[in-house]
Specification:
alpha/beta; Rossmann fold; six-stranded mixed sheet; five-stranded parallel sheet; 21 helices
Length: 495
């Protein structure tokens, strides 16, 4: 059975169930397994399989302490009628390329793929110390989409509560309403006076606060855990859709078994593209993973220079879920690229914490660049890409996907290597931006903008988004960064 340990130390070993329950390692590192890549997945067996069947194959390798029955139950519950497309993540032609829709779940964003299954995986874990009364409080910071997807997944889930923080005024109105109207007796939502990086860093500090942990265990039988992609249980389900994309290309006779594929991935926190790297290590013929950034192009600079520098201006863009300067999941990639050297990772992360920057050795950067290409789009290019995609392909994309589309159009095309753009969110989550880009009326409310977009393009606004106009706002709390810990403690005490 494979075990997990921190990126910063291999001293303590955990099963995947223990790692999922903990969320983050005690030393602040992220959970990884050295078994990754030892077992390859047979790609010749993918064609004709359903998403659920592929998920069972992939997750059986990555989470091998779950029984087949446990995984099958989790998969059946996570990928059922709450999805608007039975393929879950359908791959569709887009001109000479392809687009994979990751937004057909209940909250219309790619985070659903993982956050529909994570609560199910978590429910099948047990407390480490045998405390049968122990409850889990999920604490997460969101730059936009994770919050709602996590809330929808964990709402009223037995033995859990969830607290979500988002940066005030820095998510779209639709994203905000998705969170603040969430139903469920175990959910808490709070705006933070700061940006996503501030909130995320504070959440990590909260996880590392031993005094808080012991108080919550003693007073409320509550243990804290995470639902964003620092949790390995959030990351590994995303690996599945890369294999599903390959299976669909095989079925569409675009490729033969063994042919390579490129994936263009809009990302801020590096989780979405890291899942593609995991797929490659598991044997998927991935030629290149293209990291698409917005104006907050810290990943672009790192992947081109080898220097990661978070001490830079922060821009609020039309792709808020990518407005991130500290990409947490990069740490996992660095671990594998450093030949699995936790000492190097500790050194780099200490530099990041102390100076806001670090530099990887040149030979390591060379290895990284063999797998990861990169580029970014400014705000004008995002708008132009939304319009170009509609004019050329009659297909509407959101601003995050547009960052990837821009790179798709700029990169030289190898006719022998199909390219798949990952579409991360429904355009109806950002109707005003999309309407402005397409030259449609954008003067009304976000909901009026949805109606205009539907009318002009002949598409339909998802009911879950259009219905927010009349939903009751439940959560109006705003706290300063230094008030987050107190908010979490009160929420945990009330579980």
């Amino acid at each position: 059975m494979s075990t997990f340990h921190s990126t910063r130390s291999s001293d303590e070993a955990f099963t995947s169930k223990q790692a999922i329950r903990k969320g983050i390692a005690d030393d602040g590192g992220l959970f990884v397994t050295d078994a990754l890549g030892e077992t390859k997945i047979d790609i010749s067996d993918l064609a004709g399989k359903s998403y659920q069947q592929i998920a069972l194959t992939v997750l059986s390798v990555l989470l091998d302490d779950y029984t087949e029955e446990e995984l099958s139950q989790c998969i059946a519950e996570a990928y059922g009628s709450q999805w608007s497309d039975e393929r879950i993540t359908p791959v569709k032609p887009l001109g000479n390329d392809f687009i994979m829709e990751l937004f057909n779940g209940p909250t219309c964003a790619f985070k659903d793929v993982a956050l529909q299954i994570l609560p199910r995986l978590m429910a099948r874990t047990t407390p480490a110390d045998g405390d049968c009364d122990e409850k889990i409080m999920i604490v997460t910071a969101t730059s936009g989409d994770t919050g709602k997807a996590a809330l929808a997944g964990f709402a009223d889930a037995q033995g859990t509560g969830i607290t979500v923080f988002y940066p005030q005024g820095k998510v779209s109105r639709v994203q905000e309403l998705q969170m603040t109207t969430q139903q469920g007796s175990n959910v808490n939502v709070c705006a933070v006076d700061g940006n996503f990086d501030d909130a995320q860093s504070t959440v990590k500090r909260i996880f590392g606060d031993r005094d808080l942990a012991s108080r919550l265990e003693a007073d409320a039988h509550v243990r804290l855990s995470s639902a964003n992609s620092i949790n390995v249980g959030r990351l590994v389900p995303q690996v599945v859709y890369y294999f599903s994309a390959y299976a669909q290309l095989l079925e569409q006779q675009v490729i033969n078994v063994g042919d390579q594929v490129d994936f263009v991935v809009p990302t801020g926190n590096f989780g979405n593209v890291l899942a593609g790297y995991y797929a490659k290590l598991l044997g998927l013929p991935v030629r290149q993973l293209v990291v698409a950034s917005d104006r907050n192009n810290v990943l672009f600079d790192f992947l081109t220079t080898g220097t990661y520098n978070s001490k830079r201006p922060f821009f609020e863009t039309t792709s808020p879920s990518m407005d991130i300067l500290v990409s947490s999941n990069l740490e996992r990639m660095l671990y594998y690229m450093s030949e699995r050297d936790p000492r190097m990772i500790t050194y780099l992360m200490n530099d990041l914490a102390e100076w806001g920057t670090y530099e990887v050795p040149p030979e390591m950067l060379m290895e990284i660049r063999k797998v990861f290409a990169t580029g970014w789009a400014d705000e004008d290019q995002v708008r132009e890409s939304i319009k170009h995609c509609w004019d050329e392909n009659h297909y509407v994309i959101d601003p995050h996907t547009a960052c990837g589309y821009y790179l798709l159009e700029q990169m030289p095309r190898d006719p022998l290597t199909p390219r798949v753009l990952l579409s991360t969110a429904s355009p109806y989550k950002f109707p005003r931006v999309v309407n402005e880009a397409l030259g449609f009326d954008a003067t009304g409310t976000d909901f009026e903008c949805m109606d205009v977009l539907a009318h002009e393009t002949g598409t339909t606004a998802p009911a879950a988004l259009r219905g927010l106009e009349t939903a009751d706002v439940r959560f109006k709390d705003v706290v300063a960064i230094d008030g987050m810990e107190d908010y979490v403690e009160k929420a945990a005490q009330a579980l």
